[in-house]
Design brief:
The chain has about 350 residues and is of the alpha/beta class. The protein has twelve helices and 13 strands. It has a single domain, classed as Vaccinia Virus protein VP39 (Rossmann fold), CATH 3.40.50. Helix 4 packs antiparallel against helix 5 and helix 8 runs parallel beside helix 9.
Length: about 350
């Protein structure tokens, strides 16, 4: 049963169906409580403003500022008050502090890397992108008249790295696991790729939020939802529309071939045996390229009720789980991120061995 002002029968059905599935396709230790909190939150406040809600911003809508920048809203406001009092006549210093706390400086740094790294004459056309305002975003920045968030810049940087190795090849069928609110689908849709098929596999409620977002951006007729595919014993990739959002257990029903598989950040929030199962299906689908972004040192452990994993997965684990693939590139700088406390959010690009 749902509680709150808003009800979403399709989401409720998906969550009920999920409870009947293999544990491999149910929320991991990291996501167990988080998924329930996000579900309750959108039932209370509505899906139309999910990008301004506390739990969304804390779990699957990444931010440069609060809370992703390390400050709570209260801490950030207190810091601003202190700076205003300390530097009453120093407008420049106040602007610097404001840009630091809002995340503008970090976002601009990523945007500059994108501008320097991308070849605008080569597909996919990343320079076309400007993020939509669906979901009432509070975490966007405007650069050169276009809108970007941490989510979109993460993907754009990863695709810029991929493009260096494509040599004219254009991935048209793209599979993602744990696609957040659907940003990669939006990026690819605007990238000039003919006959694009983007497939996002996720657990509800995030799968439901992603299909809502993509339906608003692309149009409902361009998106295959759980309601449209739930009764299909087999899901033929070649018969899917531009975008599809499927629930986690439906990956077993996919048939066909994939050009590019992407996972950004969500594998690090799962236990190794869950990741290994997903990657077995990625391999089964004959995936040519694999693009990953995860913490090299693994996610924090769950302790005393805190959010975390039971068993972390490390950067090298992906290589051992993918013996049929060759590592093409691996880096933190310029396309990834190094935290102030020494953790490395690294990108890895692998290609299927001939």
């Amino acid at each position: 049963m749902t509680s709150g002002q808003y009800t979403y029968p399709e989401l409720t059905r998906a969550r009920d169906d999920m409870k009947k599935q293999n544990k491999l396709y149910q929320p991991s230790a990291f996501w167990d409580e988080a998924s329930s909190r996000i579900f309750s939150e959108i039932c209370t406040h509505g899906i139309d403003r999910f990008r301004s809600l506390e739990n969304s911003l804390g779990f699957f809508v990444p931010t440069y500022g609060v809370p992703g920048g390390g400050f709570s809203s209260q801490q950030a406001e207190r810091a601003r008050e202190l700076m205003r009092a300390e530097f009453t006549d120093e407008k420049k210093i106040q602007l610097i502090i404001q840009q630091l706390l809002s995340g503008h400086m970090s976002a601009l740094a990523d945007y500059r890397v994108l501008q320097a790294a991308d070849n605008p004459a080569q597909l996919p056309y990343l320079h076309n992108f400007s993020e939509s305002s669906v979901g009432s975003p509070v975490e966007q920045f405007n650069f050169d008249g276009r809108h970007f968030s941490r989510s979109s810049l993460n993907y754009l940087l990863g695709l810029a790295m991929l493009k260096k190795h494509l040599h004219g090849e254009v991935p048209r069928t793209v599979l993602e696991i744990g696609g957040g609110f659907g940003t990669l689908g939006e990026v690819l849709w605007s990238a000039g790729i003919d006959k694009l098929r983007y497939i996002d596999i996720d657990i509800p409620p995030t799968s439901f939020i992603a299909q809502h977002y993509l339906s608003e951006v692309l149009g409902d007729g361009q998106v295959a939802s759980y309601a449209k595919t739930v009764d299909m014993p087999w899901i033929e990739i070649d018969a899917l529309p531009t975008a599809s959002v499927l629930c986690s257990w439906q990956i077993e029903n996919l048939r066909g071939n994939v050009d590019l598989f992407v996972n950004f950040i969500s594998f690090q929030e799962m236990e190794p045996h869950i990741v290994k199962n997903y990657l077995s299906h990625v391999t089964r689908l004959g995936t040519r390229w694999i693009l990953l972004r995860n913490i090299r040192e693994g996610k924090q452990l769950r302790k005393n009720g805190s959010v975390g994993v039971d068993i972390p997965i490390y950067g090298d684990d992906y290589i051992s789980m993918l013996p049929g693939y060759q590592l093409i590139e691996r880096n933190v700088i310029p396309f990834g991120y190094q935290t102030v406390d020494g953790f490395h959010s690294e990108l890895m690009l692998l290609k299927r061995k001939e």
